[in-house]
Every structure is written in C-alpha cells, then in structure tokens.
Specification:
The chain is mainly α. It has one domain (19-101, 115-163): Ferritin, core subunit, four-helix bundle (Ferritin, Up-down Bundle), CATH 1.20.1260.10. 60% of the residues lie in helices and 0% in strands. It has seven helices and no strands. It starts with 18 loop residues before the first helix and ends with a helix.
Length: 165
C-alpha cells in the first residue's frame, strides 16, 4: 500500500540537546491528539466512508499524519541523544528515562502511554469526520502555541511547516 522513501517529509537536524523540548514534543508523539492518534484515526475511519473519494482522502491524511509522527520521533531522539542525566532530570523526564532511557516511546509528556482508547470509530461518517475535526482543532491550538517559539529550531522544523501547509 505504501512506498516508503528513506527520508523524512522535511529534514530534521537538531544538534543541541534539549530534553525540555523533547518532553513538549511527546504530546505530539504519544498524546491523545498526537500525530499517531490522528494517523490511526484517519486510517481506521476510512473503511466506514461511503464514497471512494472520501476513503482516499482519509487514507492520504492518515498517511501524512504518520509521516509527521516519524518526524516528531526523530526530533525527540535528536533532543535527547546527547542530553546529560542532569538535563533530563531538570526537564522532569527521570521517570521516562528510567523506563525508556533515551529511546523514543509513544507516551504523552506526563508519561501516560499511548492507547487506542484515544481513538473513535463509530461507523457513522458524519460522527467520525466531526471527531476528526475536533482532534485537528486541538492540534491547531498547540501549533499556534508553537508560533510563539519561532526562535527554537525544533519548533520551526515541524510545527511552522504544518501551520503553513
């Protein structure tokens, strides 16, 4: 179904350790309104859509969300890879570090693991699309927050591109 190109949708090159940024990015990696949740939501709900064009649109959006998820994971990895234990502790990530070291694990910034309970698929196209719009609105709120962080390379790399697409 997919043809994977061994490159990110947009290049990510964070060279300075930033565990605080990694923690913030975890909302977009494993939280209820994360890229993972969005991708799963669209790719699951497509089966209930009554029209092939709508199914294809859900498939396209879901695929793009998974590409975003890959970029977020790369950003978290790059923010953590050279971080010191002191910086990880200062960022409030000791619990995460204890469980996952510097690995990238789908959890929110509070350490709550990703769960399929974040998703809904009612089989009703209107209800499902309404849920998609609500989830996208929640993500949009975070993206507007990101605009305030314009001088941070990690935010610029991903969120500003999403806002401007």
């Amino acid at each position: 179904m997919w043809i994977y190109q061994k490159k990110l949708e947009y290049p990510v090159n964070i060279t300075t350790p930033n565990p605080r940024m990694a923690k913030a990015l975890m909302a977009q990696y494993g939280g209820p309104d994360s890229e993972l949740a969005a991708g799963c939501r669209y790719l699951t709900q497509r089966f209930s859509m009554p029209d092939n064009r709508v199914k294809a649109t859900c498939n396209d959006i879901g695929t793009e969300e998974i590409a975003h998820w890959e970029m977020i994971g790369t950003m978290i990895h790059q923010c953590l890879r050279d971080a010191t234990l002191k910086d990880i502790e200062a960022a409030g990530l000791m619990g995460y570090y204890t469980m996952h070291s510097k690995g990238v694990y789908p959890a929110d910034p509070n350490g709550v693991p990703f769960t399929a309970a974040y998703l809904q698929c009612t089989g009703d196209p209107i209800a499902d699309i309404t849920e998609d719009m609500a989830a996208d609105a929640a993500m949009s709120k975070r993206q507007h927050f990101a605009q305030k962080k314009k001088n941070c390379p990690a935010w610029q790399c991903f969120f500003l591109r999403c806002i401007n697409k």
